[in-house]
Structure formats: structure tokens, C-alpha cells
Write a structure and sequence with these properties.
One of its GO terms (molecular function) is transmembrane transporter activity. InterPro entries: Acrflvin-R, MMPL_dom, Mycobact_MmpL, SSD. With 545 residues, the chain is α+β, with helices and mostly antiparallel strands. It is built from 19 helices and nine strands. 59% of the residues lie in helices and 10% in strands. Strand 3 (107-112) and strand 4 form a beta hairpin. The two termini are 63 Å apart.
Length: 545
């Protein structure tokens, strides 16, 4: 230990230069840090929910959806339909967008001289100007299952456009926003769904770092100054944690680790916890006074306690690495641990090296400040009231244990935002008018043309409807029933596979159908929407499913 301490003071100049150069190197990589607000990416790749979502997105192009809400003062106007058409057209040109669902792309089954005709619900090339014709169209589409309160509100004043896409949600969400904002929309336009929530979260993470980091630095400076009454001591204590933070964030930039909703507090954690090591070392140098031998004695007296403090703190954060299921928590544990290690080495190397040039004179601390006297008196009170303190701690400990079962586990993404935030208000608006913006999919495997499979899908949809949590259920079953009804067989699934195959002929080549049934008709989707990612009701319903 003595040899190590002597080496620190012997090579103090190279140590200061090396740490300074290394800090400059890490600073270069900090601007390359990116924010990852995508909560799905936080889950392990082998998680069943993740693998299923990826499979559905790759095969059907539906698992990711951006929601555009249009709102007007008057119900179902020419302006609404023209705006909807322009948005649909422009969003379709975005390479990542696989399908746009709205009133112009939703399939309508009608009877004809040939038996059955399948065409878009509204002809985008023949939008009426007369309001009486528009009212007639609205009256017709309002009776269609999967349309009212799904694509158009009951009062006709609001409409939804669903943009299904592949790729990075924040990038696609940003492209959709840019495209729509260039269009002269006659009504109000709102952006909802996961991509736009992630965009907002991206901003929130960045703003949190901008606010929290200066705030904690200022707070620590105030506390340190009240303790040391010396600006130099305050700056040195803060310097170690700031350098450790730069190293940690720079390392994340080098390794291309993105900042998450948890790792954005790493700088705050490092400054809050790492200052303790600097405080121990600076206090020891103040107590021992100036001079080479005194400096060696000061560092020798605290190096082991500081090491043990850093070790126990690091072990605490290491537990996140091995005990966490989510990747973002493991990353937080890894880089906070690395940051603690950086803080320790910077504290025992840089601080003594700097302080050895000019330490603190004992006269600077001979008179105790009011701040110190308060804590000294508080310490004496604790010693005098040891039985009361033990009793109070025991009572608090018991109540804390009793409160553990009352902790509610809840992961609703929208709860990350303030109730006054625009994105939350939009989510509530979509939930109120259309049953929610969060899509839910049930993948069905089997011979989809078999009436037995279709009837099971129908039965399962009825089961979901009865639960009431999932809205806007839709599948190929609805189209089969519509066609059967048009042919005079009643709104039901045909009894034989031959009849289903005959109806299936009319569905072939339809873009909308390709997103709900695969080309071999061996897999199909049941789609619905829910208001939030997690509620007690939805959690219970998922278990029942």
C-alpha cells in the first residue's frame, strides 16, 4: 500500500496529464450518444412477446402502427375526406410504411349481378361535394362492422388514419409528422400511438438530462461549500465526479450504447454517490495539513475506507446486471458500476496529485461553521437517545415490511407523461372516441379456409368482446360473413370448405386481406385495440386468453 501511495505522489504530473488527455478523448465520443426510447427494444430478444411481435411485423406488416386523428367542427365533410385522402397518399410514399388503413382502403362487400363485389368503402376518386350525398355515405358506413368508432367516430366529426410500418418507430414517426405538417389540413390533426409517444419520450429523456445534471451539480456545490467553506475544495470534489461521468458517457458512446429512460440518470447517480469519495480524501488532507509526509499520511488513512465504500456501492449496482430481466436495467447496472470504479480511481489518483501541489491550511477549518455545529449536536442527541432511535427504527422497519405487498406493478407507457402533456391528452382523446391506440394481435394458425377454424376465430372474438377491454376487433371472418350475407346465406360462416373457397376467390389480391391472412391461408390475425399497455382488467384478460 505504501509503495502505491508513494508512486501516486511521485508520478503526480503524469497522472494529471494522463487523466486530462483521457477525459478529452471521452468528450469526443459524447456527442455520438443517441437516445433509445423504444420500450420494446428493452426486452430480451428471446422474449416470446418480442419474437411474436417481430414475426407478425415481418409477415403481416401490422405490429407497429402510427395513429393520425383528424377532428372537425362539422360531421363528415368534403374537407375531412379530402384531407384524409391526401394524408393517405403522402404516407403511402414513406418507404417504411407497409399499409395505410382508413375509409378509402377498408374493404366493402356489396352484392352485384356477378354475385359479390369487393371494393373500397369510399371511392377516393369520386368524393361528393354535396353534403346530402356525404350524409348518405356516412349513414351507410356507420352500419359497417369495424368502421364506426374504429375509423370514424359516432358523431362523424373525427376520423382515424392508421399507418402500419416497419423499422425504427421514432424515425418513421418523425417522417409521418413531417409529411402531414406539409399538408394544408382544414381540421385539427393529432398524432397518437407508440411512434409519437416515443418521439415525445425522446425529448423528455433529453430534457431530463439537461435539467437534472445542472440541478444536482448546483445542489452538491451548495452542500459541499457549507461543509468545507472553501471554493477550491468544492471544485475539486465536483471535478472527480464530472470527469467520471464524462468517462462513463464517453464509453457508452464508443460502444454505441444508447441512453434509455433509466440510464439517463447515471450522471446524477455518479455525482450524488461519487462525491463521498472526494469528500473523504479532501477532509483527510484538511485534517492532516500541508507537507509531503502529511499528504502521504492523509491518503494512507482514507484509501482503504474509500475503496470499501466504492466496492460496496459497485456490488449494489452489479446486482442489477445479474438480477434484471430487462436489458435497459442491466445496461444501467453495468455502466453505473463502471462509473463508480472510474470515480474511485480518479479520486485516489487525481485528487492527491493536485492537492500535493497546494493543499489546505489547518487554519481554514479551525472554527466550525453553524452547519457543522448543527450536525455535531444532532450526533450527540442520537447518542443520548439510543433506545428511542432503535425503537423508532424498528417500528418504521415493521411498517415498511407490511407495505411491500401493497406495491402495485404497473407498466403503462403513457403514465411516463404528465397528465397535462399533449401526448397524454391525445391518447385519452383517441381512447374516448375510438377505444384506444394500442394495437393487440392474436395469431391463429391452421387451415384458415376451414369453416371450423373460422368459427373458432369467431367464437374467440365473441369471447374478447364480452371482456369489454378490447375494442375494434377485426379479422377475415368479418369479410367472409359479409360475402355470405350478400349471397343470401345469412351473416354467418358457411358450413363447408367448398363454399368458403368460393368466397375466398373474391378476397384474393386484396391488399387489406394480405395484412390479415398469409398467402397460403395457414395463418391469420385477429386485431383489436386497447386503451393502455397495462391495467388490472387487461392484465387479468391476458391471463384468461
Amino acid at each position: 500500500m505504501d509503495k502505491i501511495i508513494n508512486l501516486i505522489f511521485r508520478f503526480r504530473v503524469p497522472i494529471i496529464i494522463f487523466i486530462s488527455l483521457l477525459t478529452l478523448l471521452f468528450i469526443v465520443f459524447i456527442p455520438s450518444l443517441k437516445i433509445n426510447p423504444d420500450i420494446i427494444s428493452y426486452l430480451p430478444d428471446n422474449d416470446p412477446a418480442v419474437s411474436n411481435a417481430k414475426y407478425i411485423n415481418e409477415k403481416f406488416g401490422l405490429s407497429k402502427v402510427a395513429v393520425i386523428l383528424l377532428e372537425y367542427d362539422k360531421p363528415f365533410t368534403n374537407d375531412m375526406l379530402n384531407d384524409m385522402k391526401r394524408i393517405k397518399d403522402e404516407c403511402s410514399y414513406i418507404p417504411e410504411v407497409t399499409y395505410v388503413l382508413n375509409l378509402f382502403t377498408f374493404l366493402d362487400v356489396k352484392g352485384s349481378s356477378s354475385g359479390v363485389t369487393i371494393e373500397p368503402l369510399i371511392d377516393e376518386y369520386n368524393i361528393p361535394d354535396e353534403q346530402n350525398k356525404l350524409d348518405s355515405i356516412f349513414h351507410y358506413i356507420s352500419k359497417k362492422e369495424g368502421v364506426k368508432d374504429a375509423l370514424i367516430s359516432g358523431d362523424g366529426k373525427s376520423a382515424l388514419i392508421l399507418c402500419y410500418f416497419k423499422g425504427d418507430p421514432t424515425e418513421v414517426g418523425s417522417k409521418i409528422k413531417d409529411v402531414v405538417k406539409k399538408i394544408d389540413i382544414k381540421g385539427k390533426v393529432y398524432f397518437g400511438g407508440l411512434p409519437f409517444q416515443l418521439l415525445e419520450l425522446n425529448k423528455s429523456i433529453f430534457n431530463d438530462v439537461k435539467f437534472l445534471l445542472p440541478s444536482v451539480v448546483i445542489l452538491m456545490c451548495i452542500i459541499l461549500y457549507l461543509s468545507f467553506r472553501d471554493v477550491k475544495a468544492v471544485l475539486l470534489a465536483i471535478l472527480t465526479t464530472v470527469i467520471a461521468t464524462i468517462w462513463t458517457m464517453g464509453l457508452m458512446g464508443i460502444l454505441r450504447i444508447k441512453i434509455t429512460i433509466i440510464s439517463n440518470i447515471i450522471p446524477v447517480v455518479l455525482i450524488a454517490t461519487g462525491n463521498a469519495y472526494a469528500i473523504h480524501i479532501i477532509s483527510a488532507f484538511i485534517e492532516k495539513g500541508d507537507g509531503k509526509e502529511k499528504n502521504i499520511s492523509a491518503l494512507k488513512s482514507v484509501i482503504l475506507p474509500v475503496f470499501l465504500a466504492a466496492l460496496t456501492t459497485a456490488i449494489g449496482f452489479i446486482s442489477f446486471i445479474f438480477g434484471a430481466y430487462l436489458k435497459l436495467i442491466r445496461e444501467f447496472g453495468i455502466f453505473t458500476t463502471i462509473g463508480i470504479v472510474f470515480t474511485f480511481f480518479i479520486s485516489i489518483l487525481l485528487l492527491p496529485a493536485i492537492l500535493s501541489f497546494k493543499g489546505f491550511k489547518r487554519k481554514e477549518i479551525e472554527s466550525k461553521s453553524n452547519f457543522e455545529r448543527v450536525f455535531l449536536n444532532f450526533s450527540k442527541w442520537i447518542v443520548r437517545k439510543e433506545k428511542f432511535i432503535i425503537l423508532l427504527s424498528t417500528i418504521f422497519w415493521i411498517f415498511s415490511i407490511l407495505g411491500i405487498p401493497l406495491i402495485e406493478r404497473k407498466v403503462d407507457f403513457i403514465d411516463y407523461f404528465s397528465k397535462k402533456s399533449e401526448i397524454r391528452k391525445i391518447d385519452e382523446l383517441i381512447g374516448e372516441k375510438f377505444g384506444g391506440s394500442v394495437p393487440i394481435y392474436i395469431l391463429v394458425k391452421g387451415d384458415i379456409k376451414d369453416p371450423r377454424v373460422l368459427k373458432e376465430m369467431k367464437r374467440f372474438e365473441e369471447f374478447l368482446k364480452d371482456k369489454g377491454e378490447i375494442k375494434n376487433l377485426f379479422s377475415v371472418v368479418h369479410l367472409i360473413e359479409d360475402m355470405n350475407d350478400v349471397l343470401g346465406e345469412g351473416r354467418m360462416i358457411p358450413d363447408t370448405k367448398e363454399k368458403v373457397s368460393n368466397l375466398w376467390f373474391f378476397l384474393e389480391g386484396q391488399d387489406m386481406v394480405s395484412h390479415f391472412v398469409d398467402t397460403d391461408a395457414k395463418e391469420a390475425l385477429i386485431q383489436g385495440t386497447i386503451k393502455g399497455l397495462y391495467t388490472k382488467t387487461s392484465s387479468k384478460m391476458i391471463k384468461e386468453i
